[in-house]
Structure formats: C-alpha cells, structure tokens
Amino acid sequence: MNLQDYGWNNNWQKQFEAYKHLNTNEHLTVGRVLLEHKHSYRVMTEFGEWLATPSGHFQYNAQVRRDYPAIGDWVVLEQMPGEEKGMIHTILPRTSLFSRKVAGSSVEEQIIAVNINYIFLVMSLNKDFNLRRLERYLIAAYDSGANPIIVLTKKDLCEDPSEYVDQVETIAFGVPIYTVSSFTGEGIDLLQQLLSDGHTGALLGSSGVGKSSLTNALCKENVMSVQTIRTDDDKGRHTTTHRELFQLPNGGLLIDTPGMREFQLWNNSGSLDSSFNDIETLAQHCRFRDCEHKKEPGCAVLTALAEGTLEQERYNSYFKLKRELAFIERKTNTQAQLAERNRWKKASNQIKKKTRR
Ligand code: GDP
Ligand code: ZN
What we know:
Number of strands: 15
Shape: flat
CATH architecture of the largest domain: 3-Layer(aba) Sandwich
Mean pLDDT: 82
Bound molecules: guanosine-5'-diphosphate, zinc ion
C-alpha cells in the first residue's frame, strides 16, 4: 500500500521522524485511521489494513476525547507479532479538527474528523438556501482549521445562480464558491480537481441539500462499492466492511461520518468575528469601545442599520449567535466548575482515608 494515496506527505514524514528521534523502538510505522470502533481503529498502513488499539502507555496519558485517535488521524503504531493488528503509540499533530459538543446537557466533546484539507459547505440553490445557516457552517469551518469551500448544489433547478452567489459573497469573504449540479455533472470536475493528490475533503450541510448525490458524483461510480469492501472473515462468512474515509478516483480522499451529517452548531466562540467581520469592522467606529450596539450614542453599527447599509436580518443573526455562544460558554463553565468540585471532593476523601489509616 502506498500511503501517499492516503494523504501521506513530507510534512507528515517530518513529524514521524521527529517522533522516531525520541524513540529507540525500531518497529514503528505509520497509518491513517479509516474507521473507529468502540475501543479499536481500522488503520491503513503500508503493510495493509490493521485493527489497532492504543497502547497501555497511550491510554495512561490520554485524558480527554481529543487525546484519542479519530477518523483521519495519522498514528504511529507497531505490528503485533504475526498478526494483522497494531498497537498505537502516538498521534501525529493534527492539521485540522472538527468536533462538537455532544447533544444534551453534557459538555463532552465528540470528535467528528481530523486532518481535513477542504471542508465543503453544501447548500442548494432552491428553497433550502439559507444564509444564516451558512454563517454557522462557516464558523465551524474557521474553528476547525480546514479550508472552507462553498458548494451551491442543484444548479439545474436554478434560473440565475449568480443572484445567490452574490448573496453568499456578502457573508463569506474570500471563500471560494462553486455552483454545481450532481444531475448534469456541471462543475463537479472542479471539485474533483481540488480533491486530488491525497487531499482530504468532507461535506457539511443540512439534510436534503444533495450531499449523497454529490458524493456519488465525486466518486463517478456508485459510492456503495467504494465505501464498502467485501472481505472474508475467519469463519469464511462474507462480511461487508464499512469505511468512513475512502479514496476518490482522482487521488483524493473523502470523509463521510454519521457525525458529519448530524452537525448542528459548533461552539468555539473565537470565530464569531471572522464570520461577522462586516459588523466587527463597523464596530471599530463606534464612539465607545465597549459599545454593545444596542442603543449607545455614536454607534456605527446602529447608524449602518438606520442607513440600510447593514441588513436588519444580519444584525439580528449576529446577536442570536452571540447569545447562543454565550449560553454554551456559561454551560461549559458550570460543568467545568462541577467537575472541578468533584475532583476536589474525591481528592479530599482520599486524603481523609489515608489519614484514618
Ligand atoms: P443529502 O440529504 O444532503 O444527502 O441529499 P441527497 O443527495 O439525498 O438529495 C436530496 C434530494 O435532492 C434528492 O431527491 C435528490 O434527488 C435531489 N438532488 C440532489 N442533487 C441534485 C441535483 O444536482 N439536481 C437536482 N435537480 N436534484 C438533486
Ligand atoms: Zn456600536
């Protein structure tokens, strides 16, 4: 197996060399995580695909979800003698990471995928078209470290896509925008060109916008035959093996995970500014530095709103998102405080136990 087909390059090689430099273990090799099971991972190595588990030392050092491998990771591992199995020693530093808070009250993080080069923000050129939603996807993309690319689908249904493109440009400064149709194939080749040379992509967008159709179009063949490979298990039965990271005909890779599809709202507030930098730019001209743009005199944001250069809807969505982010932050803080308190309780109980002995 040539790992370059899975995205291996000089940068990864350098990281691997740096790790090997600190280690005397001569059996180290690398592989990319294709699928995550409960406690193990399907990893593609130059010797083929292995089932791999983290070493005891690895697990001892791992504290939070991020410390464990995820789909798209490059891991350093060693083969278990005589088996198609591996033991994972470390994860090479990630270039991008998609995560979200797990639904419900928990603030546990779910890692959706890592080391994505291009994140395609998919939206259709019809009634699903929603700029506010796209703003959220952009925030997630900025937070992840992957390069966002906007893909407007179902071009065959749209009389005048340029109208939509103009709208998107007002919120997505400098982000490439492609208009495509998976039905006619228009524009697909340009996306395929991006996804070549071991570059990894993933699609993000609401249900019904055409992600499955686009995936099929990018694969040029039925995606099921790419995604699932029939293998024989030791009992001679046929089993189908599911992959969440798979190769495209053009030499690129695509990550398609359930989590990617369930995506809703990411919560790293750091990127609010990059997505709303028209408002942030206006805010620099407010009279007061701590202006909240609500009723302060000399507020440049309110002036723009009154003059019509800033849309009411955009102004509203800025505050809506700000409130949501503040809410998640508060929740996170409360949970963090609780966790901290529990930790102290545990520690002091242990001390009590010890002193009693
Ligand atoms: P997903 O939920 O994002 O994976 O969306 P699907 O790929 O399942 O597509 C949702 C619906 O849109 C289906 O009925 C598709 O047939 C339709 N669709 C997808 N791509 C196109 C396209 O390029 N043109 C048209 N006219 N319909 C499309
Ligand atoms: Zn202001």
